[in-house]
Amino acid sequence: MPHARIRKTALLATTLVVVSATVQSAPATGQDVVRVEEGNRISEDIPATPDALVERLNRYQNTRGANVAGWLGDDCLLVATRFAETAQAHRVCQPLGMREQLTFYPEPLAGMVAAPPRAWRQGFVFAKDSGGDEFSQLYWFDARTRGSTLLTDGGRTQNNEVVLSRDGALMAYTSTARNGTDRDIWVRDTRSGQARAVVIEGGSWGALDFSADGKRLLVSRYVSIAEAHPGEVDLDSGELTMFPVDGGKAAFGAFRYAPDDRAVYYVSDEAVDGAPQEFRSLRHHDPAGGAPAILSADIPWDVSEFALADDGRHLAFVSNEDGIGRLHLLSLPEHRPVALPELPIGLLGGLAFSPDGRRLALTLNSATSPSDAYVIDIDARTLTRWTRSEVGGLDTGRFVAPSLIHFPTFDQAGNGGPRMIPAFYYRPAEAAPGRRLPVVIQIHGGPESQARPGFSPTAQFLANELGIAVLVPNVRGSAGYGKTYLSLDNGPRREDSVRDIGALLDWIATRPELDADRVGVYGGSYGGYMVLASLMHYPERIRAGVDIVGISHFGTFLKNTEDYRRDLRRAEYGDERDPAMAALFDRISPLNGAAKITSPLFVAQGRNDPRVPWTEAEQIVEAVRGNGQPVWYLLFNDEGHGFRKKSNADHFTAATMLFWQQHLLK
Q: Which superfamily, per CATH, for 9-61+395-665?
C-alpha cells in the first residue's frame, strides 16, 4: 500500500489463523495507523468488534433467500441459495421440499440458465468467477452425471448472458475473448463443443433469443441505460440486420420471438407515432401487421421483465410501480388479461413457466421477508410457496416495513412545483417517546439503479436493535421514474444528485422524531462516490460516512476500470479525454476535496474489483488521513465489487455497526 511504513510486527497465532498486526505512520501527519492482516482480510484502524455486538447481530446475518433460476424437468425448480459460505445451485422438487445442493464451489455461482424442455440433454449453464474479479467462465452442469464441464477458455475473459436454443443444440453468449475490450457474441455447438464469434462489430453486444429453428438470433448493442440498438443475425450467412428505431434513440430491454416465430415481443421506451415516451412498455410487433402494439399502455411505469410459455399460450410480465413489483398475465395470441391470485406486496422476478405451460414460478421478496420461490397454478389461480428461507429465528412480526415518502428538492419539476424525490423510510417501531432518532441515509449505486423496498437484514438491525432510522432515497438519475428523471444527473449536472441529499438533510431537520445532528451516510460503488461527495459538501451536517467500493475521482476511475467497461461508463459520466470534462472531474471529485471531509470515514474495498479499482479506495484513504482525519479501512483480497462470501460480509457488517455505534449513538 502506498502509505505503508512498517515499524514493528506482532504475531498472534493459533493452529488455524495467523494474524499479523503492524503499526504504520500515515504520510504528512505522522499519525499511527494500526494495520491487521488476517487471512485475506486487511484492516486499518478498525477496533475489535465486541462479542456482545457480534452475538446480537448473528441472527440477522444468518438470514438467507432462494431465487428461481428455472425448471429442471417437469416438476423440479432450480434455485440459487446459500447454506454455507456462498450461493450455490439447488434443486427443489415439491412445495417446501428439501433443497438438494447440486454445486459445491468456494466461489458463488451466477447467471444460471436451465436447459429448455425439448433440449437434447438436461441440466443448466452457470457462470463463476474467481475472487470477485468478474472474469466469469461458463460451465455446464449435467443433470444425469451430476458433473460440471468448463465451456469457455478459463482465462482472463468475461463470459456471460447465456441463451440456449429450443433444442439445446446451440448456446449463444457474450465474451471478451477476442480482444479483452469488446463484448462480442459467440455461438457454441453444444454437441461438438465448437464455438465461433458471430458478432464482432465492436462495443457491448448481447444475445437475446434464438428463433424456433435455431437459424436466427436476436441481438442488441448496449450503449447506455437510455440507448440500445436491437438486430437479428442470420446464423447461416452471418448477416447482421439492425432494426430501425423510431426517434433514432431508445432504451430496449428483453426481446423475444413470438410463438409464430415471425413477430416479436420486446420492452422499450421507443417513440410512439413520433411522441417521446417516458417509460418502457411491453410491445408486440408483427412485421406483416404494421405498427407495434403497446400491451402495457395503461400502466404509466416501466415494464422490468417478461417471460413466454413454451407452449405459446401465455406471457407474464412485471411492472415496476414506484418501486413495487406488479405481476400481469396475458393469454396468447389475443393478449387478453388473465386473472391471478393475490400476491404479497414486494419485489418480483425470476419468471419461469413450467415445461407444460400450466404453472409459473417466480421469486417473491418483501421488506419483511427474504426472497423465496413460489409457483402459480394458472388454471386454479392458486399461489403455492416452494421454499421458506430462514430468518435466523427472528420474529418477522417485529420487522419494519418502510413507508414511501417524497421530499422537495432545490429545483422545480415540469409542472412548476418543487421537484419531489422519493425515498423509503424505515422508522424504528419501538422508539422511546420524545427521543430523537439518529439517521442513516443509504444511497444506491449505478448511478442508474433504483432503491426498492426489498428485504435488508442490515436495515432491520439498524431499526430494531440500534434504534436508528434508515432513509433510502432515489435521487435524480435513478431508474424507474421515467426517461427525464433518469437524465437529470448526466454530465455537468452530476452534483445535482448530491444536492438532493442536501434537500433530504433539510427534510430530516423538519421531522420532530429525527435528530438532524446525528446523520450518517452509507453507499456502495456510485453510492460510495455519493457518500464521499456528501461528506465533502455537508461536513457540518453529516456525522459519519461509510464508503464501499466507491469512486473517489472520476478521471482515475475511468483510467483504471477494466477495458470492457470504460466506454459504457463514459456514456454515463463523460469522457475524461475531453479537457472540459476532465476539468469537471477535477472540480467535483472527492479526492480533490478531501480537505473538506472532516467527519469520521469508513472505507471498504475488494482487491479484485474490476469496476471500481481498489486504487480508488487507497487514494481517498491516504488523502483524508493526510489532512489529519482518522479513517477506518477494510480490504478483502478475495472479493471484488462488493462482498459475496458470507464470512467477509459478516465481518464488514459487524464493523459497520460498531462504526455507527461509536459515531451516531455515543
A: Alpha/Beta hydrolase fold, catalytic domain (3.40.50.1820)
